[in-house]
Amino acid sequence: MTMLRAILLDFYGTLVHEDDINIAEITALIHANAETECTIEEVSRFWHDAFFRRSGVANGVDFVSQRELGILALEDTLAAFRVPLDAETIIQPQFAHWIAPPIFDDTIAFLNLVGELGLTTIVVSNVDRVDVEAAIQFHRFSFDDLITSDDARAYKPRPEMFRLALDLVSAEPRDVLHIGDSFGSDVRGAQAAGIPVDWLNRTGRVLPAGLPPNHELRTLDELHEVVLGLAC
Questions:
Q1: 157 cis-preceded (ω within 30 degrees of 0)
Q2: CB atoms within 10 A of CB 27
Q3: For 11-29, how does the pLDDT look when each residue is reduced to its tens digit (9 = 90+)?
């Protein structure tokens, strides 16, 4: 990497909280109403796999919005466990979270630092543009640009969103840094585009096998020194 020109930022799980509580509550509701014998863990795993299986093929002409994917994957799950509930109804708390998610305590200080350094900031998110824009407005964040799956018609870890970000700043991959909390989506996606990436591992997950990120960090506060070293 040469002189850092831009910071690419994942949004949910990085700057604001993920929807884990909503997912857990919906999973428990499915389990409680399932006519097929199952555990909560089996429901959770099935729903997770159904969502990522669908998102993995939702690109180009086959692109489907994140909200649509959420409903479809939930319908798959309800059918698998014979649950007499309506997917579009029970997923609403998750959708509500996307537009007004709680912020992490370390977010503002980090964004202030990036702003003081004059670095371009681009949010790169799998969530639908309308939802991310609502969340940005909710917290009165200010970013130079936003790229979502809607724009790329593809989901991370595919590289399309990252390539669009590079085009926006007319930069080489080595001149930007991506920061995200999802190893599968953020780390692998940025690496696929040749972009250096720092993994924000807030919950202390085990580092997966394969090419490691540039840095593994627990908080955005730990990134201050990294960014200062790259930008100066």
A1: yes
A2: 20
A3: 999 999 999 999 999 999 9
